[in-house]
């Protein structure tokens, strides 16, 4: 019998792009979750890493000395590389700060059902290397990190995805890191306990007015050059909210309760499984239902059953 041949594929080469003091470390698969795009910002006095993802792990030995970690927000894929820098102080918005200080607090950000949380807590530790960082420091909107030599990072609070989600503007290279305002066709994600649709919509109005030379995202898009490309992608990204709402109204031509709405799938594709998917659908569409009811566009024909008016 001939020997069995095992073909081992080479790992996908990881790309990067240099923009002045900023190096964008692209994640595998275009930064598709669970990967992500990470930024390295080198000043004269400090080097900062922003949102160290899983794809920082194979790059770790080639990185310069890291003096500070900045997190755009507290979600697993944006802090997955923190464990590589145990002596480096981590900073994130004060409203997301509890999530990085303990696993129990991080789980509250998601707000999943008990059955889902049990499984997900293991994923956070085993896959995303979560380690509590109680010494982490919170920042606020408008705070500036001066890295020396004219290199600065300014915090822009952009809540909605999480309470403390932030964009980061890097000077003098005029790079706006949008994090999970990722400009993808999937659209805004507001399905966690610490997410809020109305806040996300206000953030999108605000961020639309920001004029930068480069726009970087955590997933999919990577880097866009110029405002025109940014606005085109932002329109597509934002339109997912209205599309979900219109699809929901069409579904409510007949009365349905929230469980049925969640199982129908308006955020994810039909047939998408997993306990967390149903949890996200419930949280997302409950916010749409509340708004539509306040606006008189749906009514409860009996407690918990909704019908389009």
Could you describe the 3D structure shown?
The chain is α+β, with helices and mostly antiparallel strands and 309 residues long. The protein has helices at residues 28-31, 97-101, 103-110, 114-126, 197-208, 227-251, 258-264, 275-294; strands spanning 16-19, 22-25, 38-42, 47-50, 68-70, 90-93, 137-139, 144-148, 151-157, 166-171, 175-177, 214-216, 223-225, 256-257, 298-302, 305-308. The strands form 3 sheets. Strands 1-2-3-4-5-6-7 form a 7-stranded mixed sheet, with no helix packed on it. It has a 6-stranded mixed sheet with strand order 8-9-10-11-12-13, covered by helices on one side. Strand 1 (16-19) and strand 2 (22-25) form a beta hairpin. Helix 7 (258-264) crosses helix 8. The radius of gyration is 21 Å and the shape is globular.
Mean pLDDT: 95
Strand order of the largest sheet: 1-2-3-4-5-6-7
What's the shape? globular
Total of DSSP H or I helical runs spanning 4+ residues: 8
Percentage beta strand: 15-25%
The topology string of helices and strands comes to EEHEEEEHHHEEEEEHEEHEHHEE
Tell me about the largest β-sheet.
Answer: 7 strands, mixed
Fraction of residues in H or I helices: 25-40%
**Uncertain ranges:** 1-10
């Amino acid at each position: 019998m001939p020997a069995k041949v095992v073909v081992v594929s080479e790992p996908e080469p990881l790309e990067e792009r240099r923009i002045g003091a900023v190096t964008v470390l692209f994640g595998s698969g275009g930064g598709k979750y669970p990967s992500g795009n990470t930024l390295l910002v080198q000043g004269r006095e400090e080097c900062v890493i922003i949102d160290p993802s899983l794809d920082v792990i194979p790059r770790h030995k080639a990185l310069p000395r890291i003096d500070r970690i900045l997190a755009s927000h507290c979600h697993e894929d944006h802090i997955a590389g923190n464990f590589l820098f145990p002596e480096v102080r981590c900073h994130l918005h004060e409203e997301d700060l509890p999530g990085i200080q303990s696993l129990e607090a991080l789980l509250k950000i998601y707000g999943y059902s008990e059955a889902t949380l049990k499984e997900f807590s293991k994923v956070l530790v085993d896959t995303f290397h979560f380690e509590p960082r109680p010494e982490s420091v919170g920042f606020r909107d408008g705070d500036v990190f001066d890295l020396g030599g004219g290199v600065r990072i300014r915090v822009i609070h952009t809540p909605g995805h999480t309470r403390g989600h932030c964009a980061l503007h890097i000077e003098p290279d005029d790079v706006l890191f949008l994090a999970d305002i990722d400009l993808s066709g999937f659209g805004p994600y507001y399905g966690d306990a610490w997410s809020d649709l109305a806040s996300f919509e206000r953030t999108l109005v605000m961020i639309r007015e920001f004029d930068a030379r480069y726009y970087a995202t955590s997933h999919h898009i990577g880097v866009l050059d110029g405002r025109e490309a940014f606005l085109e992608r932002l329109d597509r990204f934002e339109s997912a909210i209205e599309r979900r709402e219109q699809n929901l109204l069409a579904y409510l031509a007949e009365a349905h309760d929230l469980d049925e709405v969640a199982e129908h799938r308006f955020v994810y594709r039909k047939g998408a499984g997993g306990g967390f998917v149903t949890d996200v659908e419930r949280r997302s569409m409950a916010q749409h239902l509340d708004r539509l009811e306040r606006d008189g566009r749906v009514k409860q024909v009996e407690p918990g059953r909704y019908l389009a008016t």
